[in-house]
């Protein structure tokens, strides 16, 4: 493994997050909060850690290997969880297990929480830091998606969506270029979201924290405006979630060509919008048919919550736990699909489901015409057998982890449905699936369950293959040593 580059990249990410502490630190000063007592030390510890790792990796090579990339993807989430929990520890707001769970949940944009009590009891600077962690976590995942995941997982699915003018390379220089391109798009979309919330009537502070949660698809954190039920805020939130569901590399291509219409010619985006429309109409009709809401409110709540769960954001504006079981299961199932590949959303992603359906259709044709030679294509691009194999493997592994995790979580005393909701939420980054079945917060849950759920959150963001590579390299190193 290229250990020097590995530590250099970890140090650079630590410094980025260390500098992010400056925002709540300055805000705490301006608001007269004593938060500098825990943001200052947190910033110092993180910057020193990042500086040491960058210093150790200063003689790095220019290329990152597959094993090094996998180890980086695993440890960067653990490191972020460690530095993100420091303000909670220094402030005494949460114990160690709860603080790490809260931090990992924010960085992986899951939205589950151990925090209890009214939002007014929490310093505004700590609420701001929670939103920043979610925003930085979404950015970190996007950067991994366009730099390291293609090297570790073989681009399975991503190249089908952005097959022109996009090159994925393990070279550090090209990784930096791709990261800057996507980072600009991420920042621009965040600004648009903030403006939408300001127009909806929120203050600048609430608009920023709400935009951080919407664009990162982290959803309904414990301190949220969404309980107010304001239709204007719901429109602003829906607009932000739609932007967050798109392929960020596709956005960049459209921006470079000055042709936004080309984005709507993308097969994945069209399928995403079609599934969104069809599912939203189905849920809205059923809510109206069952007498839960009148016609207008059925459309309003149906469309909003389908988009919220489809994008794996999980914003909730109604008591979805009281909805009919049919609608709750539709919301549970749709989080497994997720948004477009190349976005900050969780789930399996639309592109991979397109490939799975085309594989099934191809096999049906082979049954009818055994001698027919059929080439599987997506958007006119032939799909390599290696990609097909990896998509099938990933789908199997994802579902296997989900079912095993449901059994493990049920050992904590949760009902089977609650266990399914928690497992799905952690793996797909849509923690609101736990809310569907009455699991609101985790403060009273045992420490082992919090640790396992934190592991699932990281595993969902690793796309599973990275973790398997880490296990394989660790086992090989153990064999060589003993």
- Total number of helices: 22
- Please trace the helix and strand order, writing H or E for each element: HHHHHHHHHHHHHHHHHEEHHHHH
Percent range for β-strand residues: under 5%
Instruction: Work out the helicity level.
Output: 55-70%
Indicate the overall shape. Answer: globular
> Based on DSSP secondary structure assignment, what is the total number of beta strands?
2
Largest sheet, strands/sense/barrel:
2 strands, antiparallel
What Rg, in angstroms, do the CA atoms define?
22 Å
Low-confidence spans: 162-170
Through-space gap between termini: 20 Å
Mean pLDDT: 85
* Order of strands in the sheet with most strands: 1-2
Structural class: mainly alpha
In short:
With 482 residues, the protein is an all-alpha fold. 68% of the residues lie in helices and 1% in strands.
What's the structural blueprint in terms of helices and strands?
Blueprint: H1 3-20, H2 22-31, H3 36-56, H4 66-84, H5 86-91, H6 96-107, H7 124-147, H8 149-153, H9 158-161, H10 172-199, H11 204-215, H12 231-245, H13 248-257, H14 267-289, H15 295-310, H16 325-334, H17 350-368, E1 377-378, E2 381-382, H18 385-410, H19 416-428, H20 432-435, H21 447-462, H22 465-481
Antiparallel strand pairs: 1-2
Helix pairs in contact: 1-3, 1-4, 2-3, 2-7, 4-6, 4-22, 6-7, 6-21, 7-10, 7-11, 10-11, 10-12, 10-13, 11-12, 12-15, 14-15, 15-16, 18-19, 19-21
């Amino acid at each position: 493994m290229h250990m020097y580059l590995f530590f250099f990249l970890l140090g650079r990410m630590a410094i980025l997050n260390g500098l992010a502490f400056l925002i709540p630190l300055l805000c705490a000063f301006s608001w007269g909060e004593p938060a500098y007592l825990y943001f200052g030390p947190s910033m110092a510890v993180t910057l020193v850690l990042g500086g040491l790792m960058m210093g150790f990796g200063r003689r790095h090579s220019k290329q990152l290997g597959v094993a090094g990339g996998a180890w980086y993807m695993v440890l960067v989430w653990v490191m972020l969880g460690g530095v993100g929990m420091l303000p909670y520890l220094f402030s005494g707001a949460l114990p160690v297990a709860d603080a790490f769970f809260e931090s990992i949940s924010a960085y992986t944009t899951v939205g589950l929480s151990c925090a209890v009590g009214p939002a007014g009891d929490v310093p505004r600077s700590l609420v701001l830091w929670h939103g920043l962690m979610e925003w930085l976590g979404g950015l970190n995942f996007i950067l991994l998606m366009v730099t390291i995941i293609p090297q570790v997982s073989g681009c399975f699915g991503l190249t089908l969506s952005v097959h022109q003018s996009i090159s994925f390379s393990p070279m550090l220089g090209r990784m930096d270029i791709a990261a800057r391109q996507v980072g600009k798009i991420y920042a621009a979309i965040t600004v648009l979201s903030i403006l939408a919330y300001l127009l909806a009537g929120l203050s600048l502070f609430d608009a920023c924290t709400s935009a951080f949660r919407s664009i990162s698809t982290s959803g309904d954190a414990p301190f949220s405006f969404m309980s107010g039920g304001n239709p204007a805020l719901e429109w602003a939130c829906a607009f932000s979630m739609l932007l967050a569901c798109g392929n960020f590399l596709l956005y960049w291509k459209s921006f470079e060509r000055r042709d936004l219409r080309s984005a709507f010619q993308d097969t994945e985006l069209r399928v995403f919008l079609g599934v969104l429309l069809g599912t939203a109409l189905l849920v809205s009709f059923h809510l109206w048919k069952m007498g839960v809401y009148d016609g207008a409110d059925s459309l309003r709540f149906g469309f909003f919550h389908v988009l919220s769960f489809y994008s794996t954001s999980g914003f909730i504006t109604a008591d979805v736990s009281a909805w009919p079981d049919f609608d709750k299961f539709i919301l549970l199932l749709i989080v497994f699909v997720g948004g477009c590949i190349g976005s900050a959303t969780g789930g399996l992603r639309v592109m991979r489901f397109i490939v799975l359906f085309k594989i099934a259709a191809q096999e049906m044709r082979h049954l009818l015409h055994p001698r027919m030679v059929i080439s599987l294509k997506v958007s006119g691009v032939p799909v390599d057998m290696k990609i097909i194999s990896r998509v099938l493997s990933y789908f199997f592994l994802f579902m296997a982890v989900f079912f095993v995790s449901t059994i493990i979580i049920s050992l904590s005393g949760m009902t089977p449905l609650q266990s399914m909701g928690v497992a799905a939420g952690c793996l797909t980054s849509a923690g609101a699936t736990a809310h569907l079945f009455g699991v609101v917060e985790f403060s009273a849950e045992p420490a082992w369950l919090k640790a396992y759920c934190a592991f699932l959150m990281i595993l969902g963001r690793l796309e599973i293959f990275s973790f398997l590579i880490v296990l394989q390299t660790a086992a090989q190193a153990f064999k060589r040593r003993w």
